[in-house]
Amino acid sequence: MASIFSKIVQGKIPSYKIAEDKNYYAFLDINPNSRGHTLVIPKKEVNKLFDLDKETYTGLMDFSYRVAKALEKTVPCERIGMSVIGLEVPHVHVHLIPINFMDDMRFTKKEQLTQEQFISLAESIATNFI
Predict the structure, then answer these.
(1) How many domains does the chain have?
(2) b/e map 33-51, b = 16+ CB within 10 Å
(3) Among the listed residues 14, 101, 109, 25, the one whose alpha carbon sits nearest the alpha carbon of residue 63
(4) Using an 8 Å Cβ cutoff, are 83 and 74 in contact?
(5) Rounded distance, CA 65 to CA 76, Å?
(6) Structural domain of residue 107, as residue ranges?
(7) Mean per-residue pLDDT of the chain
(8) Which CATH number covers residue 71?
(9) What is the pLDDT of residues 64-76, one digit of tens each?
(10) What is the CA radius of gyration of the chain?
(11) Is 5 helix (H, G, I), strand (E, B) or coil?
(12) Model confidence at 43: pLDDT above 80
């Protein structure tokens, strides 16, 4: 059965897209730790990070790097944190989280955004994606 992320890639579930190419997709997390919290996924559905073939793994890290640079240009923060946990959805995903404090990475404090704020933010980040 397709994961929720595969359904997002297929357009069956809407998302706030940041960037996309033939192999990877980046979109805003709808339950963000902070403003700009983004998920980056390979379009190929694989459950565990280290089950990816080396080419897909390195491609995911390269794509994530480019998304992180766009986030840095868009969202004021000390740095972009990265986390790969993967227990919630059986599809490899990288969390890129604009952070100012360690607590911003703990997944306990959540930011609330309106649909309009999500749309505007996604468009702003996408503009800075190279």
Answers:
(1) 1
(2) bbbbbbbbbbbeebeeeee
(3) 25
(4) no
(5) 17
(6) 4-127
(7) 96
(8) 3.30.428.10
(9) 999 999 999 999 9
(10) 14
(11) helix
(12) yes
Task: Say which amino acid occupies 26.
Answer: A
Write the DSSP string, 55-70.
Answer: HHHHHHHHHHHHHHHH
User: pLDDT at position 24, please?
Assistant: 98
Catalytic (active site) residue 37: no
3-state secondary structure at position 109: coil
Quickly tell me which residue has 């190279």 as its tokens: 130
**pLDDT at 12 > cutoff 90:** yes
Catalytic residue among 37, 91, 93, 95: 93
CA distances for 71 relative to 22, 55, 90, 113, angstroms: 21, 24, 25, 17
Residues whose CB falls within 8 Å of the CB of residue 118, separated by 6 or more in sequence, listed in order: 16, 28, 30
The answer to whether residues 8 and 15 touch, using CB atoms and an 8 Å cutoff, is: yes
